[in-house]
User: Which sequence fits this backbone?
């Protein structure tokens, strides 16, 4: 169950080059995303009205997506423009989806077209801001999107799943605080005078700071519906003010998580990091992306096996502990959205 009248990240811009469409299932709907020769982005059902071939196997010519089977030319609006030796006026239209590209991300609205409002696409401090550098990737993971939200709104799992990179026992020892602030759920944890775990030692070194000193560390997870989670993370040399310390003694970033349901039990997980230090340093962006990619790959097996268990034992009640409150509150906001959609 996912809200449909909302914007999801469909792709990164570079996944849709001119000329070649991208087939992607979003919220159980197969879509063909393509870019016209003029650079305009479009999304239509991945279904040719002639014989049902996937349009994503075709190619882009001018403003049309040409079916790879018999050459039907589909317009950005889902109406057939032409087909060799055929009159196409009576051809049934297929669905087109509201789509918008901004700062390297392509957003799609899988629900009621009349309700789509580009102004509702979320804004984030780091997005399109030259003071930040972004690096990230995409994983397809076989789990309900809400399991990924639970995972990211409860970082105690780092101690166990990511023990060699960002995990440390102090995460377990310092309780997290969760609050709801309007349309946002915030779960945060502040640790003081601890040893930096390996990933943060690397970040300190790369930022020209000593890595053997004690640090203050923070994790501030912010969920906005339906499934965007931005996590402020970082360390500062201990005793300099922690989260409020001057930039010169910090290594700090936003962990970027856009979770797009593919089916009821699979997601497109757009992960990344937007960092505020040394934004021009491409080699640093690459090495952080590599490290982060390995960390998120560690979650995959846990989530996929958890999903299989839940499918096998759907009647079992699960516990809700204080560490789960971020996920629980996030699901409440999603449930509000689903209830609102059901009444319209
Ligand atoms: S199935 Fe697309 S043109 Fe025939
Ligand atoms: Fe994780």
Assistant:
């Amino acid at each position: 169950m996912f809200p449909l009248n909302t914007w999801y990240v469909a792709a990164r811009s570079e996944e849709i080059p001119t000329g070649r469409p991208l087939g992607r299932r979003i919220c159980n709907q197969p879509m063909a995303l393509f870019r016209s020769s003029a650079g305009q982005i479009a999304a239509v059902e991945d279904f040719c009205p002639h014989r049902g071939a996937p349009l994503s196997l075709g190619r882009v010519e001018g403003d049309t997506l040409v079916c790879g089977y018999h050459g039907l030319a589909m317009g950005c609006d889902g109406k057939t423009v032409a087909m060799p030796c055929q009159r196409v006026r009576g051809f049934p239209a297929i669905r087109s989806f509201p789509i918008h590209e901004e700062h390297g991300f392509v957003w799609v609205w899988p629900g009621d077209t009349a309700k789509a409002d580009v102004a509702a696409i979320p804004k984030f401090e780091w997005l399109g801001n030259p003071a930040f550098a972004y690096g990230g990737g995409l994983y397809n993971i076989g789990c309900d999107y809400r399991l990924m939200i639970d995972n990211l709104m409860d970082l105690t799992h780092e101690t166990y799943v990511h023990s060699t990179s960002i995990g440390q026992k102090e995460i377990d020892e310092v309780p997290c605080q969760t609050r709801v602030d309007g349309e946002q759920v915030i779960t945060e944890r502040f640790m003081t005078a601890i040893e930096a775990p390996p990933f943060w030692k690397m970040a300190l070194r790369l930022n020209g700071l000593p890595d053997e000193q004690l640090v203050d560390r923070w994790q501030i997870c912010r969920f906005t519906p339906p499934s965007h989670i931005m996590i402020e993370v970082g360390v500062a040399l201990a005793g300099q003010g922690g989260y409020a310390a001057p930039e010169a003694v910090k290594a700090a970033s936003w962990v970027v998580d856009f979770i797009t349901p593919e089916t009821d039990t699979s997601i497109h997980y757009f992960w990344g990091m937007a960092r505020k230090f040394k934004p021009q340093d491409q080699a640093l962006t690459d090495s952080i992306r590599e490290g982060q990619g390995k960390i998120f790959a560690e979650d995959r097996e846990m989530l996929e096996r958890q999903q299989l268990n839940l499918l096998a034992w759907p009647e079992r009640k699960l516990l809700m502990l204080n560490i789960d409150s971020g996920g629980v509150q996030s699901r409440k906001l999603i449930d509000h959205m689903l209830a609102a959609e059901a009444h319209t």
